[in-house]
Write a structure and sequence with these properties.
By secondary structure, this protein is α/β, with parallel strands linked by helices. The chain has 6 helices and 7 strands. It binds zinc ion.
Length: 148
């Protein structure tokens, strides 16, 4: 079994690797559009909460490396670690955090990052990881390099 993020749920049937998956309750809560929840119905999705101690470990590692991951992302990773399942996500920050915690991480539509990132570019304004300005979240043109 695998643990999947919202993006994988939305595009789940495009991929034949799995038809059943786990996710955390927060992902379903965040999937507001009816189209997205219909896709969630297509995938055989089981909902589970991560072990709280493991979640705390994920959160402190995230702070330690300055990961731009949301609490929901961190819960997904914690669930993968709790279940000893692979986490399937294209979120590079989340993949990177997973690698730092020695989790099994798989890319979904894109290949997974090869190794732990040492440096990342982040938006100077909101902190989101940005490959090229402007920041997709807030539109800022300012990016800075950050030690991973
Ligand atoms: Zn920004």
């Amino acid at each position: 079994m695998v643990v999947v993020d919202a993006n994988v749920i939305i595009h789940g049937r495009a991929d034949q690797r799995f038809s059943q998956a786990f996710t955390v309750p927060e992902v379903l809560e965040e999937m507001k559009s009816s189209e997205a929840s219909m896709k969630a119905d297509l995938l055989d999705l089981q909902v589970q909460r991560p072990d709280s101690e493991i979640f705390e470990q994920v959160q402190s590692k995230s702070e330690e490396i300055g990961a731009a991951t949301s609490e929901t992302d961190e819960k997904l990773l914690a669930l993968a670690l709790t279940r000893k399942d692979s986490l399937v996500t294209d979120d590079k920050d989340l993949q990177n955090l997973g690698l730092h915690l020695e989790a099994e991480v798989e890319g979904f539509l894109e290949d997974r990052i090869e190794k732990k990132l040492q440096w990342i570019s982040v938006c100077s304004n909101c902190g989101r990881e940005v490959s090229t300005p402007p920041c997709p979240r807030c539109g800022s043109q300012q990016v800075r390099r950050k030690l991973d």
